[in-house]
From TrEMBL:
Keywords: Hydrolase
Protein name: N-dimethylarginine dimethylaminohydrolase
Record-stated family: Belongs to the DDAH family.
UniProt keyword annotation of Hydrolase present: yes
Record: active site: 186, 280
Hydrolase listed as a keyword: yes
Recorded coiled-coil stretches: none
GO molecular function ontology, one term from the record: dimethylargininase activity
GO BP annotations, alphabetical order: arginine metabolic process; citrulline metabolic process; positive regulation of nitric oxide biosynthetic process
Pfam family membership, one: DDAH_eukar
Amino acid sequence: MTIADLAGTPAPEAASATARVRTPRLRRYAMTAPTFFAVEYAINPWMDTSTPVDAALAVRQWDALRSTYRTLGHTVEMVEPVAGLPDMVYAANGGLVVDGVAVVARFAYPQRAGEAVAYADWMSSRGFTPHATQYVNEGQGDLLVVGPTILAGYGFRTDLRAHAEIAELTGRRVVSLELVDPRFYHLDTALAVLDDSTVAYYPPAFSDDARAQLRRLFPDAVEVSSADAYVLGLNVVSDGKHVLLPANAVGFAEQIGELGFEPIGIDLSELFKGGGSVKCCTLEVYS
């Protein structure tokens, strides 16, 4: 049985003979169970409070994601969910942890403010000192690590002024990218990091200047179709070889399969109702 079979999605066609050999690297992730998940308010275009959520199914789908990480050998640490914080399952937004530096989120909406306290407590419990920013930052929703660089989104959630704070705290180069389509309100909905030098993105989600920067930095980047972008197909987690992505992003799966990556489709249809998928549910601790 292949990993793709385990995840419930058939493997794509075999990669071409010219595809690179990809090497996975063991990762450390933090996740929060969707114990209290619900769509109780609408703060992004995907949320509809009139659409019912199957809470039990959300838990089963989330658990399948967690189990797949563990099957691949990755470490998954649990952050205790808090009643009254239905979006806390989207752990990526809780902050950024890189090179031993922990930056806790400062959320744009008051409905999510309590999550920052919970994730700061988790960081402290793991021996990190959580640093707060003066301006809004929504963690790895808008701060994606690519090799030595942090790609930083702004336009809807994270404040552009927070990027300088992130650069100072981490000591890493921060590249600012403006998002212009509210459906792609976080960078991790419009851009996927596949390995330390490879990204995929949806060009219409970005301003002209941001697209120019991406073309300059990543001339061989994968550009995805609207069909895949509109199912949050870019909201992925990759270990350098295995790419966990929304199960119905079939075109994107074929694209990366041809490059030697192994796509693993994950069904998170219930959590999609809150505007998130694989990456949103996963906070990576970068060593």
